[in-house]
Amino acid sequence: MSGELIRRNVSVAVPRGTQRALGTIVNETRLEHAVTRAISAAGQQAMFDIAETKRVQRELEHMNPDAAGDLALIASTVSMAIARSIQRFGSELGG
Question: What is the pTM (predicted TM-score) of this model?
């Protein structure tokens, strides 16, 4: 059929240095992917943690409206600490 790809078994001699270089590239690519996934997973978990903190804040404000300002300050402080932690984590892993 026109345009169809046909698999061929072709053996090409590749110099040893090129094989090593390709192996290094593959390993570095895998490492970079793992770093990206780790940073992404940590960031997603941090967002869920912050959302949970805000949910608890709203519940407690509903139970005790007089404490709303203090609860907001605590929730904001926790959120900022989580964000700074994720920023440090990303910087340490990502370079």
Answer: 0.73
